[in-house]
Amino acid sequence: MADRTRCCIPFCRRTTAETYDEWICGKHWSTTSKRLRAILHKRKRRWAKGDHSQGPKIMRIWERLKSQAMEGALF
Predict the structure, then answer these.
(1) Which residues pair with 5 in a beta bridge?
(2) 32 with 72: CB under 8 angstroms?
């Protein structure tokens, strides 16, 4: 299981076969803001089209989503 990526939420045992640096499983992803997720995907689309000024914005949004997911995991 060493080649799998674990959910970045502490104590979550879910994994994916995809090779990501960080990943939030579906259970924890659903506890995050739908609006913020939409903004993240919009920024990623801009990045893919060549607007590389979106990188720092994407990272800030990702950190906020991780924080929300961790807060949701406390319940």
Answers:
(1) 16
(2) yes
Tell me the pLDDT tens digit for each residue of 8-66: 999 999 999 999 999 999 999 999 999 999 999 999 999 999 999 999 999 999 999 99
Question: Distance between CA 69 and CA 3 in Å, rounded?
Answer: 24
From CA 4, how far away is CA 30, in angstroms rounded?
A: 21
pTM of the model: 0.87
Crossing angle for the helix pair 34-48 and 55-73, to the nearest 10 degrees: 150
- Could you tell me how many helices (H) and strands (E) the chain has, helices first? 3, 2
Q: What is the dihedral of CA 54, 55, 57, 61, to 10 degrees?
A: 120
